[in-house]
Amino acid sequence: MDKYLDSSNEIKTVVFPVAGLGSRFLPVTKLVAKELLPILNKPLIEYAVSEAIKAGIERFIFISSPDKQSITNYFRKNNKLENELRDKNSEYLDIISNNVIPEENLIEVIQDKPMGLGHAIWCAKDYISGPFAVILPDDLVVSDVPCIKQMIDVYKKHKCNIVAIQEVDKNNISKYGVIDFLKNNQNIYHVRDMIEKPDQEKAPSNLAVIGRYILSPNIIKELSMLKTGFGGEIQLTDAIKNSIISENVIGYKFEGNRFDCGNVMGALEAQLSIAINNDKYKDQVIEIINKNLIKD
Ligand code: G1P
Predict the structure, then answer these.
(1) For the chain, where are the E strands, in sequence order?
(2) What is the CATH number of domain 13-262?
(3) pLDDT tens-digit series, residues 122-134
């Protein structure tokens, strides 16, 4: 029996929905998956995978599209390149071998039609039997303790569904799933309702759901009903909301900085911030910025 298909309550599996078209990054996404665009020398998806690995996750499910199989290939062994680098005694050999995910832990499921985030997660159904993590790679979180690890620690204590939350400006609230809560104890919010992308005036709070979730397998059952919601799509927010009758849901205000790399400016901000906080690049980046700010 697959060691992950048991009733163990440990979070060892993560789902990455990566089937989106990446329209905001056209024309580059005509050919290159948005998740493979670089933040410094690593593609965006690698930040998400590293975060999961640091949290003890061992099994990686990519919900992809027929045109985006380059994402899983990125994490496969590249024998030809490895041999070439080995022949040259190259220092880069380690870098390309370090990010390989073993074949038995790398799962790709093709989502044929873009039917929403909830549908993407439902596509993982054959591989889910216990609680699992979901990471939306567009939301890059920089933190001392990886965001999904913080959430796994909360899960160990509370054993329920957990969504990452962050305060956002009211003007931007309608871009997110938004929680309503009964009470909170520091950064733990007991959720009583959730709404996907509410109008600004109907938002129950300024606490937006960010792309990190710990979910029970019952969410898959909820998603199986394939009910459509906001934008005519099957929404993960709705499935979690519907689970509130039978399961607790916690909104966890995580520690760290989140960058919305789903748009060009957010990705640029992530680039700059990560470079400025990296000893290798810091001085050069500041020099480049200063040089460009000086007007003739
Ligand atoms: C998705 C979720 C939304 C969440 C957001 C976080 O929306 O549906 O609830 O707040 O991610 O980034 P998307 O950004 O895919 O439209």
Answers:
(1) 13-17, 38-39, 42-43, 59-64, 106-110, 132-135, 139-142, 161-167, 177-185, 188-196, 207-215, 249-253, 257-260
(2) 3.90.550.10
(3) 999 999 999 999 9
